[in-house]
Amino acid sequence: MSDSETQLLTTPLDSLHRELGAKMVPFAGYSMPVQYPAGVLTEHLHTRAAAGLFDVSHMGQVVIEGDDPAAALEALVPGDVVGLGEGRTRYSVFTDVGGGILDDLMISRLGPNKLFLVVNAACKHADFKHMQDWLAGCSVRMLDDRALLALQGPKAAEAFAAVAPASVGQGFMTIREYDVAGISCLVTRSGYTGEDGFEISVPADRAEELARVLLALEGVKPIGLGARDSLRLEAGLCLYGSDIDRTTSPVEGGIQWIIGKRRREQGGFPGAAVILAQLAEGPRRKRVGVQPDGRAPARAHTEITDLDGNVIGEITSGGFGPSVNGPVAMGYVPAAFAAPGTAVRLMVRGKALDARVVTLPFTPHRYFKG
Amino acid sequence: MSIYFTKDHEWINVEGNVGTVGITDYAQHALGDVVFVEVPEAGRGLTKGGDAAVVESVKAASEVYSPVSGTVVEGNAALAEQPAMVNEDPEGAAWFFKVELSNPAELDELMDRAAYDAFVAGLE
Q1: Which site among B59, B62, B79, B87 would you substitute to test the A interface, given the most A Cβ atoms closer than 10 Å to its Cβ?
Q2: Where would I find the Lipoyl-binding domain in this sequence (chain B) (predicted)?
């Protein structure tokens, strides 16, 4: 066993994953299930048809408390946090002074003096230090004693209602605290698959008990990180470190919608000069969907060329989309090539394959609209 | 007719001077659901251990290496249409290509079934 293997962290569901026959792989310092015996393809299709349970306990859960934590956090993110109502959840990013993205995150308001954040596993320690350094007067706590489960899919709500009656009618992108099978949980109606569903923050010592309850529900099966990645790719959602990072701005990344009207007018977030100029003038390059014409998948770092063979960009996420039943990808191209329908080529194993720029997502979002 | 195996988990079934090549059941299981296959065209020259075909699962792309040197006689066109055959019948219908051997002595460097099974057992 190598050193890196012995040093891997585990989630509270580790023994359950092994019991379920998961193939465990190192991910962001954790031993995580990449797939169960059903396999990535079956798990992906099952989530789109019924409901899947994902262990995302490696992600960072953070509580910020203070006199006005929303106003304080606005110094680090370009989103409108002050205007976020109690019980509401919003997607945002931490930006740096150059307008690049340090991480993407979900921000929920639990009360006038309390915010709840979920950040990426690989960034959580840097994010935590970043917030401790800059959110003067606020208390920033990493909730290491909580696990995070995601229940996703068109049958998630119906299944979940049986053990969480309070979830019925909960709005998309809202957060509530209620009992799930007798366990007090913090639940947002959100996810990373493009489907309806919930993300459930649960005390670590009750996580396995909760996971077993959820897996016993009609239509719910365990889903690994492999299908999580293909699901989010089809849904056109960014993976931090691949599709967005410090070299890409929110405008280039196509997530400029996270910057509210007031923030566009007032600025006051890291990189505002760069980001507001890009909003006004248009970015030099943009993240777009790329659909290969043939069957061959184009993976991350595949070169994108124009029809004359000039390299114009790179695929940042790509693979096979089980629901699309064909290859899907996204990447960056110059603004002049960003219009849907634009013909490009992808250099796969030395061959130039025909492809088109397409509108994201590849599979329509089916979020709860009740 | 004799079947041989490589450490890269290809098999080659030799009849006369022509070998039929595919990937083993162990390989398909390790790859997971196969979603794309690219096989070589007839006439292409192959070298032992060199790139010959491509097999991709949802997550990753892998090269299939030629167990021997020679010239491709035929690629299995059916695999392009139905890549999942690789998971269903890896050591039968889902053969990748047929190659005319240019140096049959290369077969001596490959494993027989018993040696390959022992090799795989050592990996687990």
Answers
A1: B59
A2: 18-100
The CATH number that applies at residue B90 is 2.40.50.100
User: CB–CB of A40 and B54 under 8 A?
Assistant: no
Q: Which residues contact A136 (CB under 8 A, 6 or more apart)?
A: A72
Interface predicted TM-score (ipTM) of this complex, two decimals: 0.88
Superfamily of domain A3-52+146-234: Probable tRNA modification gtpase trme; domain 1 (3.30.1360.120)
Closest-CA distance of chain B to residue A149, Å: 23
A163 touches A214 (CB < 8 A): yes
Q: Mind listing the pLDDT tens digit for each residue in A12-25?
A: 999 999 999 999 99
Is A324 an interface residue toward B (CB < 8 Å)? no
Question: E strands of A22-113, at which residues?
Answer: 23-27, 30-35, 51-55, 60-65, 89-95, 101-111
Residue boundaries of the structural domains of chain A = 3-52+146-234, 284-370
- Chain B: nearest CA to A40, how far in angstroms? 7
Contacts of A227 in chain B (CB under 8 A): 58
User: How many domains does chain B fold into?
Assistant: 1
Considering only CB atoms, A322 lies closest to which of B56, B58, B60, namely B58
Residue B124 is assigned to a structural domain of this protein = no
Please work out, in degrees rounded to the nearest 5, the angle formed at the alpha carbon of residue A49 by the alpha carbons of A44 and A53.
60
Range of the domain at B110: 2-119
CATH 2.40.30.110 fits A284-370, yes or no: yes
> Quick one: which of A297, A253, A145 has its CA closest to B59?
A297
